[in-house]
Structures are given as C-alpha cells and as structure tokens.
Amino acid sequence: MSINKMSFLGLALAVLLSACSSDLFLTHNGNMPSNERIAQLKLGDTKEQVVKTLGAPSSVVSFDKDTWIYMSSSIRRLAFMEPEEVSRDVLTIEFNNEGRISNIERLTKADGKDIAINTDKTESLGHEPGFFEKYFGGVGGYSPFPVVDPREL
C-alpha cells in the first residue's frame, strides 16, 4: 500500500471516529429539599409548616389531597444510547384529617421494582369493516361547507 492510500485511510478513519459523539449529559429533575430541611419535620406539623420548611411539593396525589410527594431523579444520557436513571429520591408526607403530618416515608431507586409490561391484546367485539367500507366508506360524505336548504332562506 502506498503512503497516499495509507494517509487517506487514516484520515477517513479519523473523520469517522470524530463523528461519533461522546457527549455525556447528566440531568437533574424534581424538587427534593435538603436532608437538613427534611430532618426539621416532625409528626404533628401542619401543612403550612411543611410548606415553610420544604417549599411546595412536586406533586399532590389526585384522589388524596392529604398526601404530598417531593421527588427528584438524575438521568445520564450518552450520545444515542438509551437514557439511564442514575438516582431517584422520593419523599412522601401524609397528613391526617386535621392537616397534620401522620407519616413521613423516604424511598430511593433501590426501593423501586421493575414492572413487566403485558403486550397481550384484548379483542374488541363489534363491527369489523370490510375492505371497501374501510377504504371507500367515507367517499362522498365530506362537505367543507354546510348544506343549506333553499326553502329555509
């Protein structure tokens, strides 16, 4: 192989390798208060005291307005690879009927569980359109302008 071919091959290889991205992105999402602030909470504190200490929650449970959730997560993305969750932190505060803290629970990524998604399909009973109805059933049924009966004018 001549020197020109070797240098061209080396240059082409360098260009191809430089096109591969090695960008690493670490994103932080959520609103997790510091450990010092969380340690200030005690059972019996009111919702107002919690807001003063921790700030507004990340989420309030829809069906139970007396459960507040503070959460955060860190996600690592490397070029075109699938994103990976590096850490997750969830703080759940439950209030009783008087609006006072009745339970404080803290969970991390290690407490989470993988859930297998079921890909089975449920058959829906009903009308199964044929080829012509499926592709030509709407022909002539579209009118961009409203149809007005001349007798109504």
Can you describe what's shown?
- The longest helix is centred in the first third of the chain and has 17 residues.
- Strands 1, 2, 3, 4 and 5 form a five-stranded antiparallel beta sheet that branches.
- The chain has a domain of 77 residues: Beta-lactamase Inhibitory Protein, Chain:B, domain 1 (2-Layer Sandwich).
- It is 24% helix and 27% strand.
- The chain has 153 residues and is of the alpha+beta class.
- The mean pLDDT is 83.
- The protein has four helices and five strands; from the N terminus they run αβααββββα.
Global structural class:
alpha+beta
Approximately how much beta-strand content do the residues carry? 25-35%
Please give the CATH class of the domain at 35-111. Alpha Beta
| Rg, alpha carbons | 30 Å
Mean pLDDT: 83
Outline of this structure?
By secondary structure, the protein is of the alpha+beta class. It contains 4 helices and 5 strands, in the order H-E-H-H-E-E-E-E-H.
Features:
153 residues; alpha+beta; Beta-lactamase Inhibitory Protein, Chain:B, domain 1; five-stranded antiparallel sheet
Present the secondary structure layout.
Layout (H helix, E strand, L loop, with lengths): L2 H17 L4 E7 L4 H5 L7 H8 L4 E2 L6 E12 L5 E12 L5 E8 L22 H6 L17
Antiparallel strand pairs: 1-3, 2-3, 3-4, 4-5
